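To close the chapter, one final illustration. This time we ask the reader to focus less on the individual chains and more on the assembly as a whole: which components sit near each other, and how the overall shape emerges from the parts.
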Amino acid sequence: MLFGSLIIVILIFAIEAILAKQLITSALWLAGVSALCSVLFFLCGAQLVAVVELSVGAGLVTVLFVFAISVAGDDTLDATPVPPRSLIAILVAFFILLMGWFIMPISSSPVSAISNPPLAEVLWQERGLDLIVQVVLIFSGVLGLLGLLAEIKPPLDASMAGEVGAHRQRDLHALESQISNSQEAGQ
Amino acid sequence: MSLSLFSIAFIGVIGLLGIGFYGLMICRNLIKIVIALQILVKAALLGLIAAGNLNGQINLSQSMALTVIVADTIVAVMGIALGVQIRRRIGTLDVHELSSLKG
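The assembled structure is written out below.
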């Protein structure tokens, strides 16, 4: 009963996230979907994934969305979709029927429990390659983000030494004019 | 007709996938598209965990789900950063306008 009602609330939150008129509202509905999904994971017995989903999915990603929306701003949310809505609805209905046809027979025949080694063994020994890929992904993601968010500076007019020399000359001129002004004021 | 726990979970998976695909097709805002992608990944995660529970191999599905969460977060971060840069340079987040740009 709890499981079913959670699923219904998650679906309602997801629909609201898609149909919301403001991006910030949409991001908050998505955070709700993440939080409720983590409760579902906990009920399914996946405690570790529930914790990570709650902290990353509902926390970090939401903060990033709010940051991006505050930088980029809301626009074009009322724009009509390029393909007609009726075509989209038909495609989605067909897709849901197809998925139901494939997935629902599986759920009616649970498999008896096979060997279930502890999580640490699975994570560090059997899925070791996954961990390496995750580390590479995180590094590439951070580097890509730094590259994308970096401000682009205009190219230098002269060489680096020339730029520094010109800057010092300007400072020197400013200092000299300041001194001469103060001497004139003293006289 | 009484549905089992897994049937309910798989109904949720199908529903979330449908909503995510609908969002991907209907939205023209880049950030909204990333939000629709996030909903799709939530469906995949729920399916993975439910299948692991059904199979009696919840630990294996947990380790796979962790990989999916990391990859999904990186995708979201890159999508958001691309959106912010496109907004700064071109001044719009509408994918239809972006695809009709020439030159």
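Chain A has seven helices and no strands. Chain A touches chain B through 82 residues (CB under 8 Å). With these observations in hand, you are ready for the problems at the end of the chapter.
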